Amino acid sequence: MTNNTTRLDHVVLWVSDPVAAAGFYETAVGLEPLQVAEFAEGKVSFPSVRVNEETILDLAPRTLAERMRMLPGSADSAGHPVNHICLALPADAFDALRARLEERGVPVSDIDHGSSGARGDATRSFYFRDPDGNVFEARHYDD
């Protein structure tokens, strides 16, 4: 990893129950939870899950919104999820994610082919929602 290029560091998702959300992302999506125990003990404001060595998703409780004062109107962002977040995975991890979601009864879209993204056209992609309604796309590219 180098520190001299622009990268996505983190995305903050508003969630109703950060511990439950971390559990979903760990068991259904396969992401590593971070600081869940510390959050439950009141030592940190929110837990996170690791997407890769450079990127995390912060799982902010909606009750934290009232403390969002970095810009005028920041508190109003609670409950306004982004359109979707896309996770690019290797083909085997893509298949494993879809299987885990289906095993847990998480609705998934049909598989699409050729959707354009950061690395060109994806081989396959599909969408799902987390328990708080945040929409995710999973995709993989031929390497």
UniProtKB/TrEMBL annotation:
Domain of life according to the entry: Bacteria
Domain VOC: 7-141
Pfam families recorded: Glyoxalase
Protein name, UniProt field: VOC family protein
Organism: Streptomyces actinomycinicus
